[in-house]
Amino acid sequence: MRVEAERPSIPNLFRELSGDVGQLVRQEIELAKTELTEKAGRLAKDAAAVAVAGGILFAAGLALLAAFIYGATALLDQFLPLGVAVWLGPLLVAAVLGAWGYAQLKTALAALAQERQARTLTAESLQENKQWLKRKM
């Protein structure tokens, strides 16, 4: 006497496959969420470290700026009457830094304007694609 194992039907196999695929997708999404959460935590720590380093470098820059001011004052004091160089050294350093900052600001604003224009072009392109798709539908 031969006992045949009951074979699952094709619809049952597809139902089981569909359930397995759904479970796999849910597990992959959960894994991706976990990985993103971990990466976000690491990025937050790294960003905080960069901010602290930036603060330390800013303080070092201020100290260096003070040294430049004292140096300019001492240098000008040798060539100009006493008292004039006390205000002229900081003014000279401020003028150089102001010109440098202005040049950096102009460059940054030009780059931002270009980026804004690129975003506008992308938005217009997306709007045109949307209109084209509506006409086709």
Task: Explain what this protein looks like in three dimensions.
- Helix content is 90%, strand content 0%.
- With 137 residues, it is an all-alpha fold.
- The protein has one domain (10-136).
- The longest helix has 70 residues, at 10-79.
- It starts with 9 loop residues before the first helix and ends with a helix.
- The model has no long low-confidence stretch (mean pLDDT 82).
Domain unit count: 1
- Listing every helix as H and every strand as E from the N terminus to the C terminus, the arrangement reads HH
Helical percent range?
A: over 70%
Largest sheet: none
Average residue-wise pLDDT: 82
Query: What count of helical segments does DSSP give?
Result: 2
What structural class is derived from the secondary structure elements?
A: mainly alpha
Observed structural traits:
single chain, 137 residues, mainly alpha, 2 helices, 0% strand, elongated
Which helices and strands, and how do they pair?
Elements: H1 10-79, H2 84-136
Helix pairs in contact: 1-2
